[in-house]
Amino acid sequence: MKGFLKNILGFFILLWAFSQCVEPFEEFDAQDFEDYLVVEGLITNETKAHRILISRTSPIDSLVFIPETEAQVHIEDEQGNRFPLSEKEPGKYFTTPNFTGIIGQSYTLLIQTSSGRNYRSDAVTLKSCPPIDSIYAEYRTGLINRPDGIEFYVDSHDPSNQTRYYRWEWEETYEIVVPFASIFEWIQGNEVRPRTENVGNCWKSDTSSTILIKNTIGLANDQISRFPVRFMDKFSQEIRTKYSILVKQYALSEEAFTFWSNLQESQTRQGSLFDIQPGIIQGNIRSLDDKNEIVLGYFDASQVSTLREFFVPSDFNDQGFVRPSYFANCFILDTIPEARIGEYLLTENNLESREIWDSFGAFGFTDIFYVIVPKACANCTGFADKKRPSFWR
Amino acid sequence: MKKFLSFLSFLIGSYTISIQAQENAPLFSIQFNQTDLKTALLGLERESMLPFYYADSWLDSTRITADFEYATLHEILTKVLASTRLYPIIYRDRVILSRDNPIVQKFAALESPDARSETANSRIFARENELNLNENIQKAPIEIGNKTLMIPGKSVTLAGYVREKKNGEPIVGALVYVENPFRAISTNSFGYYSLTLSAGLHVLKTQFAGMKPTQTGTLLYSDGKLDIELEEDVISLNEILVESDRDLNVSGVQMGLERIDVKTIKNIPKILGENDLIQVTLTLPGVQTIGEGASGFHVRGGNSDQNLVLLNEAPIFNTSHFLGFFSVFNADVIKKTELHKSSIPARYGSRLSSILDIQMKDGNVKKFSGQGGVGPVTGRLSLEIPLVKEKTSLILAGRTTYSDWVLNLVPDEALRNSWASFYDAVLRLSHQINENNSLYLSSYLSQDKFRLSSDSLFSYRNFNASFQWRHNFNNKFYGVLSTAYSQYDYTLDYEAIPVDAFGLGFKIRETDLKLDVSYYQSNAHRFDFGLVNKFYFLEPGYIQSLGKESLVSRREIDQEQGLESALYFSDQIDLNERISLNLGIRYSWFGAFGPAQVFDFQSGSPRELSNIVDSTDFQSAQIIKSYHGPEWRLAARYALNSETSLKLSYNRTRQYIHRLSNTISIAPTDTWKLSDTHIAPQIADQISLGIYKNFNGNNIETSLEIYYKKLNNLLDYKVGSDLILNENLATDVLQGRGKAYGVEVLLRKKSGKLNGWISYTFSRTFLKLDGDFQVERVNNGNFFPANYDKPHNISIISNYRLTQRYSFSANFTYSTGRPITFPIGNYQIAGGNVILFSQRNQFRIPDYYRLDLGINIEGNHKIKKLAHSFWSISVYNVLGRKNPYSVFFVIEEGRIQGRKLSVFGAPIPTITYNFSF
Question: Over 50: is that where the pLDDT of A258 sits?
């Protein structure tokens, strides 16, 4: 029943919240910094290069990934077979692309750092995981301490009642359509030519960055119902045109669930009366040289079940949802004659912030005029990817 | 008057005439039943048709109950006036009453055939003259005991009750004393006193803050009883802020005892209009809170579960309404509150740090009365109903929130679907069977309910009932047999997701059976001894499905049962006027009983599920594990002079029941747990030393107390433990040590236009969790400050009475910010950054200070009017300081940012209307 108390206390935190006021507090300095090894890795039944991240803690004033480089990393199965990992990027170690985890097999992560210290994870068994039944979304209003918005839910169930502990990750992709798609491209001087490719239509992707877990301990059936994986407020650009979410579902051991639950709890402190006493949350990685050394993170193995779903704003029309307006304020900034377009665009930082939308010929003028709009309203390639994802439909 | 006196002196020489006149006196039959003297005399005057001569001012409040048949007027008068200072002379068809006339007394002595009595009375006669010189004595000497048993100089015991004249309410802590030689005692919780004095004449003085002091001439022949009634002192009526037994702080052996008067509670500026007992408790030296709105309090470095809160001898497990903003006690019906911080009397036990003993009024036995009030959050009403006059009284009181408008003020739409409400109600029936037997029945119920956005409902409830039978064996010896039942439970219904919908609950029940006996062996020794049994019955938690769609299966944690028994004995020894000792011991035993299954863990391994090697099943009523040990309660006082004393005390306490809480302060969902195989009882030792000095006729009290306390087996939990519905708590509980020390300085002015107190406390509290394994250690096994370690505390409570009707109060509080755990770094995991916390409580949030102001406006002071009323207007946090409740950290905009959270960060004005009739 891990994570249960938190849910209940959350109730009181909300109730209590009405009488309080929260302000920034800056009167603190970085205190003693403690440097620990952080390991995160998950191997699945997919055939691919599985990734293990090895890093170190960083001081509170910098949110950077401090890689632990040049470590010797292996995964060992229960037969004693060792699979080496290689460092492709600093601190990011990958198995060979043909590595496939086997359901029911147990694996151990072995690390020797460049300074010669040895670490070993507890053996983890690659648990099987049931498929995701469905992903669906609802427009929700009148939520306590939350703006109105769309909540995405996952349902799943395990008829054998074996899974019980679940974790999710997601990857989302959404289409961006700019209001004034640029059809001209400035080359140099006053040379402008029609674009050959569409810069008004892009896609942007993101991945989950919070801990999404749930257990069904205490339920008669191992059934996940309406688990909220993602919430976006009603002004979110993600849902303006078309939105796709790929949810990955993993099965956890009780121990792994406890770890993620504790970690989640430690991050959701709101300074209330009912905050849980904080402390260091250790996972299943242990130092072989010093049993008192603190090592953070978790190495786990699980079957993965994935499901992708697409949503458009009109899906929520009947729930009162209004399609959000474009994030940038779009209007015509200028109309510039062809003869001055180079000069204009090279002035100040116009090139970075403005874009030619279209052109027109005015009555009585031989010159062509270019219509100038904010760049964000005409060209999305600056902040998103114009390549249509293969899965897009 | 002068004329009359000279007439009397003329009579002195001719007393025999009255005897002769008696020879053929007519006989009368007359009945008196609780008749006052004046009426009785008027009645006799009418009956005898003789004119009576006396001064009205001589008549005291004596009431007469007697039945005369064919008695002479002289016989009747002698009897009627027996307990007054008046003596009848019938002379020439007139009745003349003389006051303090020794000759008449002498005459009685001569009449007596008993020679011993004669000598005795001649002594009395001599003393009586002495007495006459004392102008302050308002009443005639009251003869007590059997004259024939009188042996001059022999020790006899005088006992009785001190009550309020207005309503018959017993007064607790009133000082009853005689001077020369000085003998004093304060009344116990029933208003009872027992004094051993030499036979003969004494001036018995009584004093109690807010009451007119009395002096009663008593003529002690043998053991006897004297009930004393005190009148409210009109002048000081509204001035009394702090009640104290005048010089008791200096003269008593007790240390670390704080008395909280109801008037204090009412005079202090309030938060949202509630008179809050716990709020006042927090202003006392040595008492701390985690923060505004936090439930519970901390005494001298003790955790909040180490305070035993007793309401009429029955424990209260949750002292807060509304998650901690209000206390569950209705101040209108509280008579007396005592907080024992050190030298806890042996009769109390089962908690480590303090005893907060709250006693309700016994009720008005004279007339129907009541009081009530209307504040912004609640309305309250209490009634005192005399069922049988002078014998039986019933109190009914209630308080409830009358609307949810507070929540409705919140702009959040979702919160409008939510509501919170609470109520509490008390009933107390007291019945005096006779002089020696009294019965008390009390019951208390409080409930809080919260609904959040129509899918969650939480409610918690305190219920208790107690019954006490008080019996006086004799003047020196009395006992109280009490039984009490207490229950605390909560339930939570959660329906947001139909499949997961559940109902969850917890319940604790405690039944106490106690016998407390006090024996006043002499003025040098007072013995208190008794036996206490506490049966605990816990339902640690259940969860069950709610609604048709719910898949939640019912699960229940095994019930726990335990018995705590204690025997105690203490001797209060007054060696001489300078040295007093209180030597006490309480021996407590605790047993946890089956049925239960207990796991054994691999020795040398951390207590984890994977290290369970065996389990033992215990049958019903089989002892699983027992603990026992002595609890020493020793205190000594050395009086340097009548206004200064030094005190020293050593105290050991043991606690077998623990609140499970790993949140920063008490959460409403916290549960309780009994000691068992894996959870040892908490034990504390405290040594304290104090110096007390009073000035200005005990009006100004100063004291300085220092203490050092060692705590053992304190409970803490592994990081991330879930304590609710936890089947294997043993794997999550850590037990560690603690130490606390501090200095408490108090300056208190008890009466006068300006009164109040200033207290300064320096205190530190450290905990240490140093298990054998890394997961069992906090801060590398070193001492670290407790959550409530706030070294400097200043409280100023003041009240200024401008006129009889207007009084102002101001309340200032300062304390060091509480410690919090600071992030020491961050790392990336699961695609995001997380903050790394370590080294518990190494950083402090900014200091706390607050000023509250209040004004009380009384209605007029006409004695005859329907109801007395007053308005209280107060402003909480006048300075509007946004006192940080906590500082926490979030990752936003790509960096770790601090956030300061404050509660009541603006001035909060409230008006309350109060009335009494």
Answer: yes
How far apart (Å, rounded) are the C-alpha atoms in residues B432 and B444? Answer: 21
Q: What per-residue confidence (pLDDT) applies to B417?
A: 67
Q: Which SS3 state, helix, strand or coil, does residue B212 take?
A: coil
For the stretch A359-367, contacts whose Cβ atoms lie closer than 8 Å and that sit 24 or more positions apart, written own/partner, are A359/A184, A359/A192, A360/A335, A365/A337, A367/A337, A367/A338, A367/A339
- Quote the CA–CA distance of B633 and B631 in Å, as a whole number: 6
- Do the Cβ atoms of A262 and B669 come within 8 Å? no
Residue positions counted in chain B: 917
Smallest CA-to-CA distance from B281 within B262, B302, B255, B303 is with B262
Question: What single string gives the DSSP state of each residue in B476-522?
Answer: TEEEEEEEEEEEEEEEEEE-SSGGG-EEEEEEEEEEEEEEEEEEE-S
Give the three-class secondary structure for B60: coil
* Residue found under tokens 């009595």: B117
Q: What is the pLDDT of residues B412-441, one digit of tens each?
A: 555 566 777 889 999 999 998 988 899 999
Nearest CB among A4, A58, A169 relative to B825 is that of A58
Task: Give the range among B189-203, B249-263, B667-681 with minimum mean pLDDT.
Answer: B249-263
| Cα gap B543→A218, rounded to integer Å | 8
Chains A, B: CB pairs < 8 Å: 269
Number of neighbours of residue B254 by Cβ within 10 angstroms: 21
DSSP A340: G
**How many other C-beta atoms can be found within 10 angstroms of the C-beta atom of residue A315?**
17
Q: Chain A contacts of B551, Cβ < 8 Å?
A: 216, 219-221, 223
Burial of A148 (0-12, 13-18, 19+ CB in 10 A): middle
Assessment of whether the complete model's pTM goes beyond 0.90: no
Query: Of the candidates B452, B669, B897, which has its C-beta nearest A15's C-beta?
Result: B452
CB A107 within 8 A of CB A101: yes
Test the A interface: residue of B289, B418, B500 with most A CBs within 10 Å:
B500
- Residue B903: is its pLDDT beyond 80? no
**Residues 239-278 in A contacting B (C-alpha not used; CB under 8 Å):** 258, 260-263, 265-267, 269-278
- What angle separates helix B102-111 from helix B115-133, to the nearest 10 degrees? 170
Q: What is the dihedral of CA A187, A188, A192, A195, to 10 degrees?
A: 0
Q: Which of A14, A156, A230, A274 to mutate to test the interface with B (most CBs of B within 10 A)?
A: A274
Q: Count of alpha carbons within 13 Å of B459, Cβ hemisphere only?
A: 12
Peptide bond into B181 cis (omega under 30): yes
- Nearest by Cα to A119 from A175, A74, A161: A74
Spatial distance between the Cα atoms of B505 and B9, rounded to a whole number of angstroms: 83
Which among B415, B492, B901 has CB closest to A8?
B492
Q: Which residues of B touch A209 (CB under 8 A)?
A: 830-832
- Distant-in-sequence, close-in-space partners of B466: CB < 8 Å, separation ≥ 6: B312, B313, B314, B440, B441, B442, B443, B482, B483, B484, B485
Helix B37-48 vs helix B73-80: angle between axes, to the nearest 10 degrees?
180
Closest of B575, B703, B728 to residue B646, by C-alpha: B703
Contact A24 B837 (CB under 8 A): no
- A296 beta partners: A38
Q: What is the ipTM of this complex?
A: 0.86
Rounded CA-CA distance B289/A5 in Å is: 23
Helix (H, G, I), strand (E, B) or coil at A143: coil
Q: Which residues pair with B209 in a beta bridge?
A: none
Element (H, E) at A65: none
Query: Which site among A6, A7, A11 would you substitute to test the B interface, given the most B Cβ atoms closer than 10 Å to its Cβ?
Result: A11
**Rounded distance, CA B693 to CA B704, Å?**
9
